[in-house]
Request: fold
Amino acid sequence: MAKVINGIAIPNMPWEEKPAGYKETLWRFSGNPIFELNPGPKAARVFNSAVIPYGDGFVGVFRADHKDITMHLHFGKSKDAINWELEDEDIKWVDESGKPFQPAYGYDPRLCKIGDEYFIMWCTSFAGSPTIGLGKTKDFKTFTRLENAFLPHNRNGVLFPRKINGNYVLLSRPSDNGHTPFGDIYLSESPDMTYWGKHKNVMKAGGSWQALKIGAGPIPIETDEGWLMIYHGVVLTCNGYVYSFGAALLDLENPSKVLYRSGNYLLTPEEPYETVGFVQNVCFPCAALCDAPTGRLAIYYGTADTYTGIAFGTVDDIIKFTKETNQLLHGDSELGRD
Ligand code: BMA
Reply:
């Protein structure tokens, strides 16, 4: 069995056994979707959001699109990671000197614990264009926004949960100012979360379900078989984009080298809350709770830019699936420097 490395036990995380006779690798939570529409005075739809264990429960940074159709980050807490208390107002950021430092918009957050700090990555407005916003907190009361990691245009910033070869490592997906009809996954390194360099290509879009663009999802999970990276892939159909998600295994020491990459999707829009909504046919994972001793996973994914779903699976089964359906593309297994 594949072993999770540097993980923690989360015995209180959401979990349901796989339904009898069900053949797919991931199965959906029977209580999906987990947020009602209009869950707050401002929030209309909560999706593409990040959760993490904290204290004796869970906290989350949620993408809440407001009733004027603007995108905001809201803090929330929960005892069971299913029923959430979402704050009415969006997160108020300060800079490192304590002065207000509010982005004009924020969406698709990820949450990563490194040492005793929680880092938040999101797609932020930078002079009106999207790039990777970075922030941190220790207590989920004071949220300190750091300088933007990159120039526009970029999205899907995802940190690894520890330094690799002495540097922080951040995945990202360079993009354009709109609905980006392209997109590959890159990584960048930093000694201090300020200066980013040593950029490398991790993997490119290509193949069927991931033909148009790809972007990293939850924080990669360290295993004895490599970093397990769950990522979304998009295909362009006659009826628009379809967002599914799959998995790849990356080399532990050089994560720009892809060891295996799933030729099939793990999950694609099938349920009404995934196929019908503000943007149809979207399954967009941003977080995963992983119980290290058992390898149980609860993957949080936005659906149809309208709702939030949870899908269950195990690290071992996802690794098996990734190897069995493996379809590496040209350059995937290389360092990605040229
Ligand atoms: C992407 C991102 C996601 C969104 C998806 C589908 O470009 O903006 O936030 O879920 O489009 O609309």
Notes: Residues 48, 107-108, 179-180, 243, 279, 282, 284, 302, 305 surround beta-D-mannopyranose (CB under 6 Å). The chain has a mean pLDDT of 98. Residues 315-324 form the longest helix (10 residues). Helices lie at 272-275, 315-324.
